Amino acid sequence: MFRFFRSTENQRLIARLLRESFYAHRFGYAAAILSMLVVAATTAASAYMLREITNEFVVYKRIGQVNLIAAATGAIFILKGFANFIQAYFMSRVGNAIIADRQRKIYDSILAQGIEFYHSTSSSELISRMTNNAQAARSVLDQIVTSYVRDLVTLAALVGVMVWQQPALSLICLVIGPIAIYGVNRILKRVRKIASQEFRSLGQIVQVMQETAIGVRVVKSFGLEGAMRKRMYKAVSDVESRANNIATLEAATSPVMETLAGLAIAGAVFVSGFLVLGGGGQMPGNIMAFIAALLLAYEPAKRLARVRISLETGIVGVRMMFQLADRPLTLAEKPDAKPLRAGPGEIHFDNVSFAYPESAPVFEGLDLTLAAGKMTALVGPSGSGKSTILNLIMRMYDPQVGRVMFDGQDISCATLTSVREKIAYVSQDTFLFAGTIMHNIRLGREGATDEEVMAAARAANAHDFISAQAKGYDTDVGENGALLSGGQRQRISIARAMLRNAEILLLDEATSALDAESEALFRDALQQLTVGRTTIVIAHRLSTVHQADTIVVLEAGKVVESGAHRTLLNQGGLYQKLYEYQLMP
């Protein structure tokens, strides 16, 4: 039973769980534990009462004791009932609070990770950790409290009654205990490995379901129903198989316990019969109390013998939960980080070298200045480093060498909040949150009035289509904006950035989902929006960057050209080639 705690790692995980979760809810646990002690005491007392009932009524026939014994018996069971209620109430409340606390902490840990964490971890795994790992934390604490307090104390109290009534018989019965524990431990060897695989299989089910829902158009248009069904069936079968394996291991403890307990009880009844009927001088009440205590001790003993299975299963989730919490942050604020000072908005890349994890360098010694209050367009072939520049500006990553400067301030030495407060970002991969159109635009600046939201929508050429909706700005967008067209989602995203009214505006293919008319209207709005604001635009359609003050042409992570649209066309370099290529029919 206690072998689980011999593992140094298990001791460390349990100690941390007790420190972080048990202690925070110590008063609720204290009430539950006190109630469990009452349950244990009343359970033992109910067994002992059989001695008094049998001896007083059957042997001595003392009618005068009826009222007292009846009242005592009733009081014992009433007290036990109330104690059971209090125990269940506090264990449920505390357990639910622990799940909520752990889910908040898991979410905070996920949210604090850098962007590369999300590239290497599937969303299905994150969802699984939010649900299963938090539940595992509660399960482990529940098992510790109920098994090592309620069941252990109840068993000890009942054994005390047994020893008090029949010491010799008790010793014979207790010999069975180590044999049962040995048998159960033999069964437990495979539980941890299977439980770990079970967590991963559950994540696979979530992943396939997510891909089916999000990519339903691709699934149906390419006729992938069969392939997706095959993946889902395999994931479900894996979970079923491993769940059956664990259930089989758990069930295997029952015949071991039932057989050994049956032998102990049968032997006790056999010997007791001789002691009473064979002239052994034993009072029937003592034997009845002993047998009752032995029978009542069976259930807590069985639960204690099997508790290690539940702990081995739950500790896997606890381990995964703490692994996430302890994962080093690749992008963390320095202890002495300070907010950025206000400035005109100049951005400078000072001898920057950068490579994504396990990838070739994107930049080596990049020196680039993006003028304050001006519009700079970044153009070039795919893989030339355009989006990486935006990632470094937003401090999604830090360069391995060099510095990214805002108005002469190294952003790696500034607080993340102060860096990102200066930036509004529109991505080519438009993302909308569940909720209304009004809610999605207002995320650009919490606290904005309805009038300010509508003004931003007008500037983004979104007001007309929003007003045409049955519920207007209160229209629900669906999951990731599924109820809107691609162009509508993009215009809402642009309106969100406009509402933010930040010093730096980053547009990464912001017009990619707009038709020609909407794009022209957006360019007109952009002229007003960019006045006095540092604007960085990435566009593959070069027709959208004519109005930029400066166009920076990138190739293989290097600046190969820089200048205004007409100037670059006259140079006859890469920009001219890209421009002419797009003009080809």
Secondary structure layout plus pairing:
Blueprint: H1 8-22, H2 26-59, H3 66-112, H4 115-120, H5 123-165, H6 167-174, H7 176-187, H8 191-214, H9 216-221, H10 225-277, H11 284-325, E1 347-355, E2 361-370, E3 375-379, H12 386-393, E4 401-406, E5 409-410, H13 416-421, E6 423-426, H14 437-442, H15 450-459, H16 463-467, H17 486-500, E7 504-508, H18 516-529, E8 534-538, E9 550-555, E10 558-563, H19 565-571, H20 574-583
Parallel strand pairs: 3-8, 3-9, 6-7, 7-8
Antiparallel strand pairs: 1-2, 1-4, 4-5, 9-10
Characterise this structure:
- The protein is of the alpha/beta class and 585 residues long.
- It has a domain at 3-325: Up-down Bundle (ABC transporter transmembrane region fold).
- The protein is built from 20 helices and ten strands.
- The chain has helices at residues 8-22, 26-59, 66-112, 115-120, 123-165, 167-174, 176-187, 191-214, 216-221, 225-277, 284-325, 386-393, 416-421, 437-442, 450-459, 463-467, 486-500, 516-529, 565-571, 574-583; strands at 347-355, 361-370, 375-379, 401-406, 409-410, 423-426, 504-508, 534-538, 550-555, 558-563.
- Strands 6-7-8-3-9-10 form a six-stranded mixed beta sheet, sandwiched between helices. The protein has a four-stranded antiparallel beta sheet with strand order 2-1-4-5, covered by helices on one side.
- A hairpin with a 2-residue loop joins strand 4 (401-406) and strand 5.
- Helix 2 (26-59) runs antiparallel to helix 3.
- The N and C termini lie far apart (78 Å).
- The mean pLDDT is 83.
